[in-house]
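Many introductory courses stop at the sequence. We go one step further.
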Amino acid sequence: MNKDEHYQIFLQEVQARKQNLADRLRDFLKPTQAFKTLEIGSGHGDFLVQYATTYPERFCLGIDLITQRIEKSNKKARRANVAQCFFLKARAEEFLESQPAEFLWDEIFVLYPDPWPKKRHHKNRLFQVEFLDRLALRVSLGAKIHFETDAKDYFDEVCGRMEVHPRWRKLEGRIYAIDTVFSRITGQQGHHAVFECCEACPADPISS
């Protein structure tokens, strides 16, 4: 099997995974649900379960790539008796592409994402222009992104990218006091920023 054949198989696997995810999300994500909060890279679920306990009326979903983390997080949510807090295994880009177009998030948390510290790996960082474009299609007007990292260069890169993006703007200050495993380990709060979706997006050409 040559390289092209391997690549075609890879593309087929990705498409099948996205279709399966889209089918699941169509039944799971309802536009009529209350205030909708998404955490991308939810880890072991500590932050989102705590958040859902404080705001039990909000619909909360955390996504992560590691199966063990998802299972552990869902157990925490059940133990905490938070009825509207769930965790799902998914890649961020594929999740946003697969969610129903009419379902819009009101709040996004991205806390301590992989900083990919080596310069040659910076292209793997989450906050690329394409990601911000896609995210703007999946949130309501005025929706907030809460971003926190201990990597100063990554923080500056994201803030700079947001400054020139037509649909996002940086807000001053914090909205929540965020307690994470990372901040407890280091004993320090990371660099924190809140961004707001400030312009309505046209219809999604992929989903419409």
